[in-house]
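User: Some background: our group keeps a shared notebook of sequences we're curious about, and every so often someone picks one and asks for a predicted structure to add to the entry. Today it's my turn. The entry only has the sequence so far, pasted here. Could you supply the structure so I can complete it?
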Amino acid sequence: MDKPKKETSQPLAPFWQHNWAGLDRVFDNFRRDFEHTLASFPAISMPSFSISTMSCDIVDEVDRYVINAEIPGVSKNEIKLNVSDNVVEVSAEHKEQEEEKKKNYIRKESKDFSYHRTLSLPEKVQGEKSKAKLNNGILTIEIPKVTPTPKPKSNSIPVQ
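Assistant: Of course. Here's the predicted structure to add to the notebook entry:
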């Protein structure tokens, strides 16, 4: 008759059970080898192009909405504005390039950035009657409502 085998439990990772320095060394070696492998690839330069959201304030003025959007650094011909039903979409894209030539030296610097924001309004608006004006980096959009919102009645209540 065979002797029953004695069960021995082994920790999942006996190497790391009491040797955290050894675990750190394993990860350091992995990171070093990984970085070394990536360094052998040629560098890829991506153009710097940033998309940012603009700060917007929406004011309900009974018969219309007034939106003030901060979009510094763009001119009015770089702005696209779409209004439909109860959605306003504002976007702007700016590309700037500067070139300087001296003897055999050429320097080019460029700034590319864009803004994009989609705003939902609580009521339908008349997009075809909207007006927009850009002044010192603030875009002001006035959009008439289809049906004006009546002013809420206010009742004064005495405190006893």
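Suggested note for the entry: The chain has one helix and eight strands. The radius of gyration is 32 Å.
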